[in-house]
Amino acid sequence: MFKRWLGEAFLWGAGWKMDGERPSEQRYVIIAAPHTSNWDMPFMFAMAFVYDIPVRWMGKHTLFEGRFGPFFRWMGGMPIVRHRTAGVVEQMIEHFENESSLVLMVPAEGTRGHVEYWKSGFYHIARGADVPVCLSYLDFGKKVGGIGPMIRMTGDIRADMDKIRAFYEGKQGFCPENVGEIRLREEDIEGYVQGDAEDLDVVERLASSL
Predict the structure, then answer these.
(1) Is the pTM value of this prediction over 0.90?
(2) Alpha-carbon distance 135 to 66, whole Å?
C-alpha cells in the first residue's frame, strides 16, 4: 500500500499518466526503454509500485554488502557474481527455474548514453528461461508511460526485434539525443545460427550480456 501511494504521488506531482494493464503472467522479463537519463529509474519504479509489479533488477554483488544493501534488496535488487563460472545470462535463467514468480527488469540499452546496439542479455535470458518479454516504456514527450504487449522470443532475432522496434517507434526519452538504434549485434553477425541461442556458451560469446 505504501509503495502504491508513493508511486501515485510521484507521478501525479510530475504530471504523468499511465497506459496499459498489469500483466497476468508471474514470470517474465520486462524491458525498460528508452533509457537516456538518471530520471528513468524513479519513473520506472513509481509505475511498478502503482501497477503492483514486484520488479527485480540485477546489480553487482558488492553493491549489497554495504550499509545500503538491505535498501537495495527491498527495492528488488538481485546480487550478480560476475566472477562465477556461470555467466550473467545463465545465473538469471537459474533464478527463473527456481522461482515461481519473477519479474526481471532490464534496461536493454545498458547505459544512458547513445549506443549502437542494445545489450542482448534480455533476449537470451527470456529464451533460455522460456518466459515472455514485456515491453514497458517512458515517453517524456507525452508524459505517458506504462505497459505494452508481451512477446515471446522465437529465436528469429530479426523478426522478434522488428516487433520491438515497431512498439518503441516515436517514444521519446528524457534526452532524445541519447536514444540509440533498437538493434542487437547478433542481427549483423554474418552466418549467425538462430538455434545457437540455445547454447549458453554461444550466448555468452554473442550477447555482450548486460
Answers:
(1) no
(2) 33
| Dihedral angle of Cα 60, 62, 63, 64, to the nearest 10 degrees | 110
- Helices 88-98 and 121-129: crossing angle in degrees, nearest 10, is 40
C-alpha cell at 10: 510521484
Helix (H, G, I), strand (E, B) or coil at 39: coil
Half-sphere exposure of 135 (CA within 13 A, CB side): 20
Nearest to 188 by CA among 153, 209, 157: 157
> What residue type is 105 in one-letter code?
M
**Cell of residue 113, nine digits:** 548514453
C-alpha cell at 96: 527463473
Residue pLDDT, tens place only, 118-148: 888 899 999 999 999 999 999 999 999 999 9
* Long-range contacts, 21-26 (Cβ 8 Å, 24+): 21/147, 22/51, 22/52, 22/53, 22/147, 23/53, 23/134, 23/147, 23/150, 25/131, 25/132, 25/134, 25/150, 26/100, 26/101, 26/102
DSSP characters for 176-210? GGG-----BGGGG-TT--GGGGG-HHHHHHHH---
SS3 content of the chain, % helix, strand, coil (to 5): 40, 20, 40
pLDDT band at 191 (very low <50, low <70, confident <90, very high): very low
